Amino acid sequence: MQIQAAQLKDVPQIVKLIKVILEEMELPALHELSNTQLTQLFEKTFASPEYQGQLANLIVAKDQDEVLGVMFGYIGQNEQALFDVFKRYYSELSIPKTTVIFSDAEADKDEWYLNSLCVSEAHRGQGIGTQLLNYLPTIGEQAHTHEIGLLVDFENPQAAKLYQRVGFKNERVQVVAGHHYYHLKKQV
């Protein structure tokens, strides 16, 4: 297994994993878009230069060509610019201009924010999430920051334990899309 920056050919597998997280978040846009629109929107957005390294990091755990897990994040000050990339594809996909994918700020401006971490269901419990998290110091160094932040849902104590096991500490409670999260931080 390798931990590496995602390639364009990985995007469809990445989107399948990210959609698991989106469903847990219960975002209103999930009820406004068809499954095809949502999939195509995320595939186009994640294939954009901004998501392929200009403003964000898409990191995958791969075995051969199979994406076993994905980690997606960015420096907090880039969050709104990344959210705005989605709008670029609305017209092409017949998505109403008023559609909002993400409305609430999640990241602190000065942290590298771990927006998403997901391991495929078939590969959970094999330490892949931990291996992805162990890559965070490399990302912090590349991004010139020593602080990594993330949100973990109150209803996901297993994930909270994983993050705490690798050194994250609870900083505060934050509400995003009506859900309560712990905002955890780690110095790298």
TrEMBL record:
Entry coiled-coil feature ranges: none
Protein name (database record): Acetyltransferase
Top-level lineage group: Bacteria
SUPFAM superfamilies: Acyl-CoA N-acyltransferases (Nat)
Recorded GO MF terms: acyltransferase activity, transferring groups other than amino-acyl groups
Keywords tagged on the record: Transferase
InterPro entries given in the database record: Acyl_CoA_acyltransferase, GNAT_dom
N-acetyltransferase domain sequence ranges: 1-188
Membrane-spanning segments: none
Species, as recorded: Pediococcus ethanolidurans
